[in-house]
Each structure stands twice: as C-alpha cells, then as structure tokens.
Amino acid sequence: MLKKLFCLPLLSVISPNLFAEGLSMQAGAASPISQSLLMTFLMAAIFYLMIWRPQSKKTKEQKNLMNNLTVADEVVTSSGILGKIIRLSEQFVVLEISPGAEVKFQKQAIAQVLPKGSLKEMNKAH
Q1: How would you class 88 by CB atoms within 10 Å of its CB: exposed for 0-12, middle for 13-18, buried for 19 or more?
Q2: d(Cα 32, Cα 24) in Å, to the nearest integer?
Q3: What is the secondary structure of 18-49 as a DSSP string?
Q4: Which of 69, 112, 114, 115 has its CA at a distance of 20 to 30 angstroms from the CA of residue 122?
Q5: How many alpha carbons lie under 13 Å from residue 50 in its C-beta half-sphere?
Q6: For 83, left (φ over 0), alpha (ψ -120 to 50), or beta?
Q7: Domain co-membership, 58 together with 12
Q8: What gap in Å lies between CA 9 and CA 14, rounded to an integer?
Q9: So what's the pLDDT on residue 3?
Q10: 94-113 residue pLDDT tens
Q11: Domain that holds residue 85
Q12: pLDDT tens across 44-97, in order?
C-alpha cells in the first residue's frame, strides 16, 4: 500500500492515461483527494528545495557580506571593478581603484571581498 501511495503520483505525471484507466481501478488504490494532496505536497517540497532555499541562502550571504565590510578591504564590484575601500557609509562605499582615483558605489554593488594583498599581486602581474 505504501509503495502504491508513492508511485501513483509519479505515474500520473509520466502517463496520465495509464493512471486514469488502469491503476485507479485497482483495489486498494489511494483516493483521488489523497493523491492530489500528495502531489501538491511534493510540488511544494520541490519548489522549496530547488528555488526558495538556495535564493534565501544567497540573500543571507550577501547581507552578511554587506554588514562585514570594513575600510581597507579589497573588493570586486558586480561590474568587475577592483578596488580598496577608503570610506564606508550605511548606503555607499568609496573605492580607490588606482592611486588618486576614487569611485563611489552602492554597497549592494560589492560582489566579493578579496584576500588582503590581492590588488598588489594583480598590479605586479601587469
């Protein structure tokens, strides 16, 4: 009975005609209401695991990144600009992208914090 309870919703997705004609006529088959509830639950679980949970995890990581920014952090913006934070406010950061060149960005534009010394290493390579 338990095997039928889990297999019937999957078969209904794969082959609705087979399910409607053959399997629903068998004795002991699950009721249509319980099958609908099970399918709804399975779809909600798939939605949660595939979409909602990863997105909320990504949002939480981005929020932690924004809260942990400090002056002198070396960062990469979402547009790919590398720089060092020289000023920081609640909404904006000012990056020094080269000696004497400062650019103001929204905090949300910061995509990644680089390890200390990364900018010097990149400047040596060029």
Answers
A1: middle
A2: 9
A3: HHHHTGGGSTTPPPHHHHHHHHHHHHHHHHII
A4: 69
A5: 6
A6: beta
A7: yes
A8: 9
A9: 47
A10: 999 989 999 999 999 999 99
A11: 69-125
A12: 999 999 999 999 999 999 899 889 999 999 999 999 999 999 999 999 999 999
